[in-house]
Specification:
InterPro entries: ABATE, ABATE_dom_sf, Znf_CGNR. This is CGNR zinc finger domain-containing protein. Pfam families: ABATE, zf-CGNR. The protein is mainly alpha-helical. 35% of the residues are buried. The chain is globular and about 60 Å long. The mean pLDDT is 92. The protein has eight helices and six strands, in the order H-H-E-E-H-H-H-H-E-E-H-E-E-H. Strand 1 and strand 2 form a beta hairpin. It starts with a helix and ends with a helix.
Length: 200
C-alpha cells in the first residue's frame, strides 16, 4: 500500500474483491491506520474503481449518499470488513472461521444478478435501487473465495504496519508482500538501512 491515501485507494493487490475491500483500511496494523472509505460516497467511488458497481447504478446511489440509510450501510460495511480480517486471519492460522455475520448478511442479499458488459469487462447488473448494493459483490466474492481451494492461499503482507491481505498464487506460496514494488521495496530498503545502522 502507499503512504498517499488517494493513491492507496486505487491500489488493488488482494486478487479478489473481498480482500481488496478488506484492504480499504490503509496501514491497518500500524499505530495510525488510514481510512480509505470514510463515507458512503467514498464507498461508491471505490466500487466504481474496483469495477463491482455499474456506473449507472453508482450515479443513482450518489443521490442518496447523505441519507441515514446510507450511513447505516457504511457501518455494516465496516463490520463486514472487520469480519473479513478475522476470517482471513483464522484461515491463515489453520483455524475454523466464524461465518455468522457473513451468513446473516447473505440471508438479506439477493441472488447474484445477470452480468452486463461495461467498458472492457463485466459487471453485475445492479440497478442502483438499494443502498446495500455496493456490499453485495463483496459478499459474493467472499463466498466464492471461501468455497474454493484459494481459501488456503490467503496471505498477509509482511511489511511493517501494512496488514493488507491477498491470495498467494505464487507456485510455491512464497509471496510476502501485498506488492513487491511498493511494500516489498520499502521493506527491503528499511531492513538494509537498519542493517547498515547496526553495523555502524
Amino acid at each position: 500500500m502507499s503512504r498517499d491515501p488517494a493513491r492507496a485507494a486505487t491500489q488493488f493487490f488482494g486478487g479478489r474483491v473481498c480482500l481488496d475491500f478488506a484492504n480499504t483500511l490503509d496501514w491497518r496494523t500500524s499505530d495510525e491506520p488510514q481510512e480509505l472509505i470514510p463515507d458512503y460516497a467514498s464507498l461508491l467511488s471505490w466500487s466504481e474503481r474496483r469495477g463491482t458497481l455499474p456506473l449507472a447504478a453508482s450515479r443513482k446511489l450518489k443521490a442518496r449518499a447523505a441519507s441515514r440509510e446510507a450511513e447505516a450501510i457504511l457501518q455494516k460495511g465496516y463490520a463486514l470488513r472487520r469480519d473479513i480480517w478475522t476470517i482471513s486471519d483464522a484461515l491463515r492460522d489453520g483455524r475454523s472461521a466464524d461465518l455468522r455475520l457473513v451468513n446473516q448478511m447473505l440471508s438479506g442479499a439477493p441472488r447474484q444478478p445477470e452480468l452486463m458488459r461495461q467498458d472492457r469487462g463485466y459487471r453485475h447488473a445492479l440497478a442502483g435501487a438499494d443502498v446495500s448494493e455496493p456490499l453485495w459483490p463483496v459478499l459474493w466474492s467472499l463466498t466464492a473465495l471461501l468455497a474454493s481451494d484459494d481459501a488456503g492461499r490467503i496471505g498477509c503482507c509482511e511489511a511493517e504496519g501494512c496488514g493488507w491481505f491477498f491470495v498467494d498464487e505464487s507456485p510455491n506460496r512464497t509471496r510476502r508482500w501485498c506488492s513487491s514494488e511498493v511494500c516489498g521495496n520499502r521493506e527491503r530498503a528499511r531492513r538494509a538501512y537498519a542493517k547498515r545502522k547496526g553495523s555502524a
